[in-house]
Amino acid sequence: MSSAHKPTDIKLHQKSRVLEIIFDDGAHFELSCEYLRVYSPSAEVRGHGPGQEVLQLGKESVNITGIEPVGNYAVKLEFDDGHNTGIYSWDTLYTLGSEKEALWAEYLERLEKAGHQRKG
Fold first, then answer.
1. In the chain, what are the domains?
2. Position 71 confidence tier, pLDDT thresholds 50, 70, 90
3. Which long-range contacts (CB under 8 A, 24 or more apart) does 29-32 make?
4. pTM
């Protein structure tokens, strides 16, 4: 599996709950654990097809407890809420980083429509 983007550095800052990723093209992203959790590429979150996404609630203080390499194209992130089935390809992480502003706004809007108040 080939990726257009490859990370040169991945650091987990557990205290601030941020995953910092630097890619070979110089792109530098700081992605919160909450953001990565609610946009997990797992079937549990994404569903099995369009329109089947499951809105994740109450993930404001979720943290990553483990990062496991998957081949040389992805990582599996383990979260402290027990979620560990999402495999984040380099391209997925790059997209989550480059589209963070729009995706985060979309998530907050979906929470609001669901009547959920974020704690944090």
1. 7-113 (3.30.2020.30)
2. very high
3. 29/93, 29/94, 29/96, 29/97, 29/98, 29/100, 31/93, 31/96, 31/97, 31/100
4. 0.94
